[in-house]
Design brief:
The structure is a homodimer. Chain A is an alpha+beta fold. Chain A folds into three domains: about 30-100 and about 140-225 and about 325-415, FAD/NAD(P)-binding domain (3-Layer(bba) Sandwich), CATH 3.50.50.60; about 100-135 and about 225-320, D-Amino Acid Oxidase, subunit A, domain 2 (D-Amino Acid Oxidase, Chain A, domain 2); about 460-635, Phenol hydroxylase, C-terminal dimerisation domain (Glutaredoxin), CATH 3.40.30. Chain A has 14 helices and 29 strands. In chain A, strands 1, 2, 8, 9, 10, 11 and 19 form a seven-stranded mixed β-sheet that branches. The first copy, chain A, has a seven-stranded mixed β-sheet with strand order 6-5-14-15-16-13-17, sandwiched between helices. Chain A has a seven-stranded mixed β-sheet with strand order 22-21-27-24-23-28-29, covered by helices on one side. In chain A, α1 links the parallel β1 (about 35-40) and β2. In chain A, α1 (about 45-55) runs parallel beside α4 and α1 (about 45-55) runs parallel beside α8 (about 360-380). The radius of gyration of chain A is 26 Å and the shape is globular. Chain A starts with about 35 loop residues before the first strand and ends with a helix. Chains A and B meet through α3, β4, α4, β13 and β17 of A and α3, β4, α4, β13 and β17 of B. The complex binds flavin-adenine dinucleotide (2 copies). Chains A, B: Belongs to the PheA/TfdB FAD monooxygenase family. Chains A, B: Keywords: FAD, Flavoprotein, Monooxygenase, Oxidoreductase. Chains A, B: Serves to protect the cell against DNA damage by alkyl hydroperoxides. It can use either NADH or NADPH as electron donor for direct reduction of redox dyes or of alkyl hydroperoxides when combined with the AhpC protein. Chains A, B: Its cofactor is FAD.
Chain lengths: ~650, ~650
Amino acid sequence: MQYYLDGFRSGSPDQKNAQPNRREYGAHAPLPETVDVLIAGTGPAGLCLAAQMSQFDDISTMIIERSPGNIAKGKADGINTRTMEMFQAFGFAESVKRESYWVNQTAFWMPDPENPANIKRVGRVQDVADDSSEMPHTLINQARVHELFLEVMKNSSSRLQPDYGWMVVDLSIGDEHEGFPVSVTLQDTGVNWGEIKTVRAKYVVGCDGARSNVRKAIGGELSGDSAHQAWGVMDILANTDFPDIRQKCLITSAHEGNVLILPREGGYLFRMYVELDKLKDDERAAERQFSQQDMIRVANQIIRPYTIDVKEVVWWSIYEIGHRMTNRFDNVAEDAVGEQHPRVFTAGDACHTHSPKAGQGMNVSMQDTFNLGWKLAHVLQGRSDPGLLRSYSSERWAEAKRLVDTDHEWARIMSAPPGESDLDRDDEPRFMRQFKENLEFTGGLAVHYGPSRIVGSSEYQALATGLEVGRRFHSAPVVRLSDVKPMQLGHVAQADGRWRLYLFAPQNDTGEAPSVLADVCQWLESHPDSPIQRYTRSDEDLDALIDVRAIFQQTFEALNYETMPPLLRPMKGRLGLQDHEKIFCVDHKGEGDIFQMRGINRAQGCMIVVRPDQYIAHVLPIRATSELKVFFDGVFVKP
Amino acid sequence: MQYYLDGFRSGSPDQKNAQPNRREYGAHAPLPETVDVLIAGTGPAGLCLAAQMSQFDDISTMIIERSPGNIAKGKADGINTRTMEMFQAFGFAESVKRESYWVNQTAFWMPDPENPANIKRVGRVQDVADDSSEMPHTLINQARVHELFLEVMKNSSSRLQPDYGWMVVDLSIGDEHEGFPVSVTLQDTGVNWGEIKTVRAKYVVGCDGARSNVRKAIGGELSGDSAHQAWGVMDILANTDFPDIRQKCLITSAHEGNVLILPREGGYLFRMYVELDKLKDDERAAERQFSQQDMIRVANQIIRPYTIDVKEVVWWSIYEIGHRMTNRFDNVAEDAVGEQHPRVFTAGDACHTHSPKAGQGMNVSMQDTFNLGWKLAHVLQGRSDPGLLRSYSSERWAEAKRLVDTDHEWARIMSAPPGESDLDRDDEPRFMRQFKENLEFTGGLAVHYGPSRIVGSSEYQALATGLEVGRRFHSAPVVRLSDVKPMQLGHVAQADGRWRLYLFAPQNDTGEAPSVLADVCQWLESHPDSPIQRYTRSDEDLDALIDVRAIFQQTFEALNYETMPPLLRPMKGRLGLQDHEKIFCVDHKGEGDIFQMRGINRAQGCMIVVRPDQYIAHVLPIRATSELKVFFDGVFVKP
Ligand SMILES: Cc1cc2nc3c(=O)[nH]c(=O)nc-3n(C[C@H](O)[C@H](O)[C@H](O)COP(=O)(O)OP(=O)(O)OC[C@H]3O[C@@H](n4cnc5c(N)ncnc54)[C@H](O)[C@@H]3O)c2cc1C
Ligand SMILES: Cc1cc2nc3c(=O)[nH]c(=O)nc-3n(C[C@H](O)[C@H](O)[C@H](O)COP(=O)(O)OP(=O)(O)OC[C@H]3O[C@@H](n4cnc5c(N)ncnc54)[C@H](O)[C@@H]3O)c2cc1C
């Protein structure tokens, strides 16, 4: 962590210095009249966006929630590895790692062929494939995830807090040229129930869940599966003789239905999902009146010969959900694209809903707004033209679609009769094989954004075969040169709206002029065509917009810090202090060589451009300065 | 982390449920009349003890501080690996790892033989030897360490806070049979300056620094070096062309003196120590009037040809200190040992002071009270007789003595004329060689308590050559069987006053009866001679006093959870929930085999008894139940 740039201050480094004249949140303090970004809903989508926006001192944000406070329990609990990587950028991945359950192995149980009334373990699968992410797949209750985002907000310079007890009832979009064109009608859901208030915003984001009023206001409609799936879900403190109770388990019984076991944070709690439409007819008929006791009874039938002795039901629910989505995630109709720029967006369950089986609901919701946040910031800060905002809907719609399709495919495979040749190739049960094939996808690692003004072509992909354009930057171990610290390169990326430019040096390049790396740094620092020169404002630090880091092929003893290019040791902040965290070399502690792990061309090196949301925007030859210029000219506008 | 044992609760798991009728800390709330433990001073020693005591719901603690609040800057900054291991037990090692500077390499600079007016790097040493600890050596300001302990206190069930603005002026020890025999006179140092108040305590611990009033009250006197060493110390935000500024550096100039560079948390700050008695005569003469500017000028002379451009002086001080210590760390005079039990203790700087060069001051202070805390708890809870308390002074006095001696030895070697054969054996500068030899010591890892009622003999040491009786339990990687989680075995030890008993299974033992491991578990759980049977109270969980964990030689696939001994899956808490975190196996992810790493006899296995402060109390054959009984009979008294 870097801090004290503008002088020493005691206390937690996570807490930023407070802004003067920031909004007051005391009792009876008024709501603001206008705001840059108004967010509806404090679910994972809304809180992730609020936490992101709170990182920008010059943008005002307001987040509205119908309920009187944060949820205490229930809802989703799966944090895939991709989301953990994002949490790292927000600074709380370590907290989640410490508090959460880690999914290390997933166990599969099926009817015992010798006695089909009983279940038997048929196999286990390592849940996070080696080197697929440096992060674990974790399970923790959604309320706690909310709290961690709330802490980020509260630690920000605006000390952002939700406005609980207000709901968005409607909104209207006025003239583009008004300062705050979106007029939002709020209704008090607290003591002054029914009281109406209007707030005007530059942008509105509906993170208000499956029954979203924001979606309705922009004419969006969820469509898709008409047949909803119903799940009984229960978080319990219970004892059992089932030996895999602390492992994620997919359990299929011969005749009683299926149950999914998810062990949870704290070492005692676990969750059970019972797929209600897979129950026997008599069970299912009672679905509407299905009770806690029914669910416990059914689970006990499924896991025979084992039993579950429930001590405390923490939360339970019948969760009915279809795979449904809207046709776009903003207010611009297909025929107006190009003429009109979006002012209102929807994210998360407000525009797409998913079965809990793949554990994606909470994850995609946050990834939606992590995609949107930096784009809003760029436009509000005048760094990019508002045309950039359209990419939110196109990128995230395609991902939601892929999610729905994958789940349908999974369902098709699972429900096909046994023995079909393409499905039952070998001994391994098909759902185990399919689970393995889906791991990258369920880990959130398969997301792949198509070419656009913010995703370049893959012309030079061969220079870094393991860092694919359009996919997330896949971290790997490095050593920081200045202090010889072993670390993950990906962890330099904070949720701060900045772009990263990784310069992977060609073999034998030490950074000392004359060298390719020295030339590129020189160009980046001072050439009039350099995006840093063109788009960084005169009152900003050299790395305020594009944060350049270099990675050398040598280990630390073979490099000289004093001959490194000045761009890699920039003076920053109020005091003009030197930043010593831009230069990396290859790990010498047996963690692996990043050049080899990510397939980087050793002879040539390369440049990797990474977006503020950690997605790879471009892979370019190390000397491709003109391509770099062209790419960033498509992203930014002159200040 | 394990939590929710007594039911689900939302919020941070670090925050314990609050006690009913706990003390109120609001403005104008009264001080208590009596308290079990009164601690004087909120330095590292006092706060570590307060954090420890706050873990025991049935013990009341009060911590008094003369100043009006926590310090904001300055003082010590080095956290050695041993202290990091202790922080892990308190739950905040991850926070320190995230926020702090890590000392990875220490660089040595000496006069350039070709131009002695300039310095030149002569070498580097890896600062934490491979597998000497799983923790890094870190640097972070003392104020922040204080804050992290304060958080532990505040999260405890008593919501313990310091009483700032009071000083201990004197104390007297009354009759042993009074409930609260120590009468402590406090004086208000705040608004009601001079007001006197008396609090009676069962035990008093003077953590009140080098000028300790508690030490004076029990007739202790610091003695040792009469010649104080004087150091100029300065925490600065500065730029420099000195290339190793983000590495710990020992710099010796030809004629200008020595400087020690310690990079600090946040990436910009660093500390410089200038050894004032090594300065040229004209500099030294001015020692008393030595100013900030002098210090900066001298540092610039020493590091020639490089320069330091100071942007902000965060803190600076002339720190004068001798290696001094008292002859005992409690109130019992030598001739009364055996007749009298200690009631008053001193810890940290109150009873021993050290040169900052070895970076030990803050570390030993905390290790002092970590040694004392569980002993106080055992006696106050009636688990041990008060004779146990004497071991605090004997164990910690010997360690302080070793520290003083080692520092003297270091000084002797450093000041001997060059060319003496035993000191200059080879090319490597003697101070670099000596630094390497001292690493285990400066890491806090050389601490070795002698045999006593709480440290057994080393008769069976050959069964675990890497886990030495009397030294700290050296962690190693394992995998937890129930959830296949890769982790450090040492991290199961929390600062909760419990003993750990590690059962290392013999080869091929799977825990399934009949087997050696099953037998031992059976004995521990139910035999009347078992210390668990004898000393655990009937209303307590089976592992409340002695926490048994088993480690098997197989990897996870080769073991069956369902056939493990019941002792290793105990039912606990209000709900009788099963604990699934007692059984470990060998790592399968390439982190290493604990049996091999710690030299454990594969054929026989062994038992390792670990004290609540993480020191190894005993190594025993796996079947040595009668020796185990004898050992614990020496520790505990029947409830
Ligand atoms: C009862 C329930 C159980 C679930 N169980 C699971 C599960 O077991 N597994 C799983 O993967 N997923 C589950 N989910 C889904 C998962 O929680 C969602 O996918 C995830 O929360 C989506 O996040 P979101 O931020 O888009 O929406 P939500 O988390 O739904 O958040 C929307 C928020 O907006 C608020 N809101 C709604 N309307 C307005 C308005 N007009 N104005 C202001 N605020 C408004 C709501 O009160 C809510 O706080 C469950 C959802 C529900 C509701
Ligand atoms: C100015 C200064 C600079 C230092 N610099 C370094 C350094 O550079 N490197 C290094 O390794 N170590 C340094 N130290 C030493 C290091 O801080 C100590 O070794 C460490 O703090 C010892 O911890 P402690 O808890 O024993 O005592 P302290 O940290 O000294 O804490 C004692 C506490 O007791 C309080 N107190 C004193 N008397 C009373 C009383 N009668 N009643 C109630 N409260 C009382 C004090 O206000 C203080 O808060 C420095 C110490 C000082 C004072």
